[in-house]
Design brief:
Length: 183
């Protein structure tokens, strides 16, 4: 049987502190330290895994929200581009003239039905040759189609486009003056 730490004799001749100090001389003192280190390591790994799991879950939730918003914006963007093409080829003597106040169309993309309302905002400019020509600007507003005109707070994308046209009303160029994503 081994004598306990306090009962062991200490050699007074030796000056080695490991042998003369009763606390450091006990090899049994560190017993269980590796178990405590292993438990601490496992707790640390568990905390890191829990944090990463939370991060992945939150990122996945945010991705779904952003995907819905992005799909709405892409659908509104495509619907406005379709409406610009429609307005460009309207009959200038009737629907495409500055006297025609507004119009609308609906289209579907990304499983969303989008309505685009447009409003003519016309002015008159003088050409290089001195003739007066209508400067035909059109403001397009896209929103989810609810069966009625787009309300201001529902607009997803708004664009202002200038249709450069000749004196006879033929569109020669189309200029996008502004394009704003509002939602």
């Amino acid at each position: 049987m081994r004598a306990s730490r306090r009962e062991r004799a200490i050699d007074p001749v030796r000056t080695d502190p490991v042998r003369t100090d009763p606390v450091r001389a006990d090899p049994e003192r560190d017993r269980g330290a590796s178990l405590m280190m292993a438990i601490g390591f496992m707790v640390l790994i568990g905390a890191i895994a829990a944090g990463l799991s939370s991060l992945v879950t939150t990122s996945n939730y945010n991705r779904l929200t952003l995907e819905i918003v992005r799909d709405r914006q892409y659908a509104a963007d495509g619907a406005i581009e379709e409406a610009i093409t429609t307005v460009r080829f309207l009959d200038r003597t009737r629907d495409g003239s500055c006297e025609a106040s507004a119009g609308s169309n609906s289209s579907g993309l990304n499983d969303l039905k989008i309505r685009v309302d447009w409003e003519n905002v016309c002015g008159v400019v003088r050409t290089d040759t001195g003739e007066l020509v209508a400067q035909r600007n059109v403001v397009f507003s896209a929103c989810e189609d609810t069966g009625s005109a787009c309300r201001e707070d529902e607009v997803i994308v708004r664009a202002q486009v200038n249709f450069e046209q000749t004196a006879r009303g033929e569109v020669t160029r189309t200029w996008v003056q502004s394009w704003s994503v509002l939602q």
